[in-house]
Design goal:
This is DUF2249 domain-containing protein. This protein has one domain: TusA-like domain (Translation Initiation Factor IF3, 2-Layer Sandwich), CATH 3.30.110.40. 25% of the residues lie in helices and 34% in strands. The chain has helices at residues 18-28, 45-53, and strands spanning 6-10, 35-40, 56-63, 67-74. Strand 1 (6-10), helix 1 and strand 2 form a beta-alpha-beta unit. It starts with 5 loop residues before the first strand and ends in a 6-residue tail after the last strand.
């Protein structure tokens, strides 16, 4: 069993739907215990709905300069 890793994804400056597409691509490659940490300029509400539908959990932190850090991980018992 390998240690959990945090994968970073910076989608600042990209126009929709590119941030959403890049986040979904990154989640496809995420290990079962890994976490995705995304930096984005607006809160990604459409992504939140998709995460909930697919068993992911998330936490969003508002940062200075109108940035958001979204941390995403698989919910307990969700398949890899």
């Amino acid at each position: 069993m390998s240690a959990a890793q945090v994968h970073h994804l910076d989608v600042r400056g990209l126009e929709p739907p590119e941030p959403l597409e890049q986040a979904l691509d990154a989640l496809d490659r995420l290990g079962a215990s890994d976490e995705l940490c995304m930096l984005i300029e607006r809160e990604p509400h459409p992504l939140y709905r998709m995460l909930a539908q697919n068993g992911y959990r998330h936490s969003t932190t508002s940062l200075p300069d109108f940035l958001y850090q979204v941390r995403i991980w698989r919910g307990p018992g969700d398949p890899a």
